[in-house]
User: What shape does this take?
Amino acid sequence: MTAAETPDETTAVPDGCPADTAVETIQREMTVFARRARASAGRMHPELSLVSYTLLGHLEERDGRRATDLAAHYALDKSTVSRQVSALERAGLIERRVDPDDHRVQVLHLTESGRQALDRVTERRRTAFRERLADWAEEDLLRFAGYLERYNAWPGAAPDGERDRAAPGPRTVDGTH
Amino acid sequence: MTAAETPDETTAVPDGCPADTAVETIQREMTVFARRARASAGRMHPELSLVSYTLLGHLEERDGRRATDLAAHYALDKSTVSRQVSALERAGLIERRVDPDDHRVQVLHLTESGRQALDRVTERRRTAFRERLADWAEEDLLRFAGYLERYNAWPGAAPDGERDRAAPGPRTVDGTH
DNA sequence: CTCCGGAGTTGTACTGTGCAACCAGCAATG
DNA sequence: CATTGCTGGTTGCACAGTACAACTCCGGAG
Assistant: This one.
C-alpha cells in the first residue's frame, strides 16, 4: 500500500516511513520469487533441479571450492551439501579430488559433462528470463542485479570467509559493490 | 564477471551484452536469497515457517482470498495449499468460511490470533531487515522494492487472474508499476 | 602419542511439494 | 429432472531437500 491508502484493516503496525514498506515489500516479493523459482525450474529444466543448477553454477563461477564453502555460502548444513555433491558426482557432473595438502578436504570441479549440462540449462533460463525482462531498460537490469548482489553480499548473512579464497572475483555486473 | 574479464574457461556462451550478465546475476542472486531465506526464517521465527508466514502475509494484505488464489499466486499445487491451509487453521491462525454463493469455495480469513502472530513475526523480520538494509539509501530501497514488484508482476509468471478480484490494490511501494 | 578441532558421511526424521485419483457443488444441455 | 462437464478442494502416495546428531578420518598442538 502506498502509505497514503491505509483504509482497510491491513497493517496493525503503523508502517512508519516508506522505507519500512519497502523493506516489507522486498521480503515479500523475494519470497514470492523464491517459491515460483523452484516451481518453474522443475518445468523449465527437469534435467537439473534448482539446487543442482545453483551449485553447479557456483562451481563454474569459482572452480575448486570445498563442500564447506558451498554450505557456508548457501547457509546449508554440511550434510545437505554432502548429499547434493554425492548426487552430482553420481550423475557425473562434478568431480571430487582430495586436496593433496590436507586429506580431509575434497576440492570440487565441474566435469566436462557438468559444464555442458550447466550451459544447456543456463541457455534455457537465459532465454526465458530474457523474454521476461525484455521490456526492462538495460539500466534497470544493471541496477536490479546490483541491488541483489549488494543485498546478498551483506556480511552478516553468510558467515562466509568465502570472498578471500582463490578464484577470480565474483561475477559482478557493474561496479556496484 | 564484468564481461571485460573473461580470461578463464567459465562461459561457453559468449555472454553477449551486459544485460545478459545482469540477467544471470539476477537469477543467481535471487536463488541465493531464496535458499538463505528459508534457513534464516527457521532461526528468526520458529513459530511460523516461511511458508506460513508468507501465506498469512498474503491474507493480511488481501483478506478473503480463496485457496486457489494462493495456489495461483505462488505457483503451488492446490494440494499443497490445501495442506498448508489446514495446518494454519489447526493452529488457529486462519478461518475457513464457505462462500454462501458457491459452496465449493472457502474463503480464508485471518483470525485475531493469526494477525497477532503475523505482526509479531513481521516485527522481528522488519528489525532484522532494517539492520541489514541500514546503510541503503532510501531511494535505493524504494527502487529495489519496485524492481521486485515489477519483476513478479510479470503476467506470464503466475497465471493469476488474481489482480482483478475484490480487495484493494496490491501493496505498492511507489508508483513504479 | 594423545587429544582437539575441522571436513565429510551416514542415520533418522520432518517439511514442503507435486501428481493423480477422488469427492462435491455449480452450470449448461438434452 | 438427469447427464455431462467444469471448478474448488482433499487425500494417498512418493520424493526432494533439509537439519541435527553421532560418527569417521585426518592434521596440528601439547
Summary: The two ends of chain A are 31 Å apart (CA to CA). The longest helix of chain A spans residues 18-44. Chain A touches chain B through 80 residues (CB under 8 Å). The helical segments of chain A are 18-44, 50-61, 67-74, 78-90, 112-132, 138-152.
